[in-house]
Specification:
two-stranded antiparallel ribbon; 3 helices; elongated
């Protein structure tokens, strides 16, 4: 077995112990994962030939900052609703205490 490895040939046992990324017979051995697309010999399809309108400044702005603006708006709306509900709850507790104070 040692003579086969020294001669530059790898045996089945040597291949079994070889880790991914090590050089095997002049090539780099790669692991194939299920998420990798299969290799294709065809070139990618050309882009559509339809004319596209140039993007406006407003469109570019909202494409970049639309998500953060929406996030801030929804955060502010949530904060307002929580504050409003808390204020109404405190008001109702105060009104109940007033009624209890008058009936005593």
């Amino acid at each position: 077995m040692n003579s086969a490895i020294r001669a530059g040939r790898t045996t089945t046992l040597a291949r079994a112990w070889m880790l991914p990324g090590r050089v095997a017979e002049g090539r780099i051995a790669r692991r194939l994962y299920a998420t990798e697309p299969p290799p294709t010999s065809q070139p990618p399809p050309p882009p559509p030939t339809g004319e596209r309108q140039p993007q406006t400044r407003a469109g570019t702005f909202y494409k970049s900052f639309g998500s953060p603006i929406l996030k801030c708006f929804l955060g502010a709306l949530f904060t307002y609703q929580v504050t409003y509900w808390t204020w109404m709850k405190l008001e109702s507790v105060e009104v109940q205490k007033d009624y209890q104070g008058r009936s005593d």
